[in-house]
Amino acid sequence: MVKKKLRNSNAPIDLASADSDYSKHRSCWRHMVAHLHAQKKRMTKREIEEIKEIFEFTTPCFSNTFPHHERSKRRTNCKNIIIHKEKKKLDTAAFEWYFRNLWKSFSDDKKSSFGYLDCLWFSFYLKTSSREKVLNWIKKKRIFSKKYVFVPIVCWNHWSLLILCHFGESLESKIRAPCMLLLDSLQMANPKRLEPNIRKFVFDIYKEEGRPESKQLITKIPMLVPKVPQQRNGEECGNFVLYFINLFMDGAPENFSVSEGYPYFMKKNWFGPEALEHFFRKLDSIPKLDL
């Protein structure tokens, strides 16, 4: 009999590890394949193996706590997710579930100016083995046709929000020049440490799209870190990112230039803890739609 290797309880949390509680999310490779099959997407055996390889280090499956189709069970499970939210940091499955319901609560007219990337894509991009696929997925999102694109980032067991602004505009524009906003509710953790990977990520997106901008211009796109409200404990970062998205969609200006400062509403006192709690109560009251 093979002895089971004991885990080191003092080892750092690794988001890419299948043993990490934080890695629980909706993207079990079996469910991903089943989802694509249900959408009548034809896949070769090799493509299935590639999906399995990408998600190999980011499961176990979240199906035991994720909302089910039966109405009564869904209502119960929604409460369980709220309890999970209040007591523990949002994992990627709970975050994505809340985000999809938030997104569907906005009108089509409002959503037409915005785009978003899956909350796991940035993490997958950092893996050489899945980078090409992620860039291909992003290309299909047509982000250069949107004014603003939300990129939720989860790295080092912490959530932050990258917003790509006016990426379809000329890099030399004086009115709507492209820029990046990195919103982080834990600035003491030094959000700027993400900048090298973010800049490589953005350059590869431009390159994949076949855009004419030179590397020199792309590397000059400003990345700004506004002073935003800060979390009170180590568990609230995912909640803050969802609320950042909600407020930005509500108040984003038609145009803004970084030379004139941040959007008027983006300040350290943007909102208080009571507003955040009210937001989640409201979010939970939204009709629970299938993902």
Order of helices and strands: HHHHHEHHEEEHHEHH
Structural class: alpha/beta
- Bin the strand percentage: 5-15%
Give the number of DSSP strands: 5
Protein name: Ubiquitin-like protease family profile domain-containing protein
Organism: Vitis rotundifolia (Muscadine grape)
Family: Belongs to the peptidase C48 family.
InterPro entries: Papain-like_cys_pep_sf, Peptidase_C48_C
Give the key terms.
291 residues; Adenoviral Proteinase, Chain; 2 domains; 5-stranded mixed beta sheet; 11 helices; Papain-like_cys_pep_sf; Ubiquitin-like protease family profile domain-containing protein; cysteine-type peptidase activity
Topology:
Elements: H1 29-38, H2 45-55, H3 71-87, H4 92-104, H5 108-111, E1 114-116, H6 121-125, H7 128-140, E2 148-155, E3 158-165, E4 179-183, H8 195-209, H9 215-218, E5 223-224, H10 237-251, H11 273-285
Parallel strand pairs: 1-2, 4-5
Antiparallel strand pairs: 2-3, 3-4
Explain what the structure shows.
- With 291 residues, the chain is an alpha/beta fold.
- Helices cover 41% and strands 9% of the residues.
- The protein has a five-stranded mixed β-sheet with strand order 1-2-3-4-5.
- α7 (128-140) packs across α8.
- It starts with 28 loop residues before the first helix and ends in a 6-residue tail after the last helix.
- Mean pLDDT is 75; it is low at 4-27 and 54-87.
- Belongs to the peptidase C48 family.
- InterPro entries: Papain-like_cys_pep_sf, Peptidase_C48_C.
